[in-house]
Here is the input.
Amino acid sequence: MNVLIDEYPLVVLPTLACQYGLNEAIVIQQIHYWTQKNKPMSDGFVWVYNSIPEWKRQFPFWSERTIFSILKNLKNLGLVIAERKSDNPYDQTLYYRLDHEKFGISISQTLQDRKSNTCKINNTDITIDYNFEDFWKA
Here is the structure.
């Protein structure tokens, strides 16, 4: 079995990981992926719905508690909007979408900062060196 080719990949962008953390970047990208596959609802927005166990199937390497914490953090940052869309009080399904307006502002600044190959993690400047010559010499 060759898992490097046969398994469906998750995508992570270094810019998102530097800005929001690796776990958050993976979830952001996955929400974006699913919104590209769905159609707008009556409010004009494209929403993704998954229960925590359904998210767990997409992220089997995290616990349900970790997934809950990541989604809560993204909601608290204002990057993800989560709403119940059903009028049925027994339907507690949460729908998620990215707040593209908030993203546009914070990501555009991050992309400008990335030109210097530096990102901030916990208020510390980290330089990303894309020169792999030394790596191959080892």
Notes: The CA atoms of residues 72 and 80 lie 9 Å apart. The radius of gyration is 18 Å. The first strand starts at residue 48 and ends at 49.
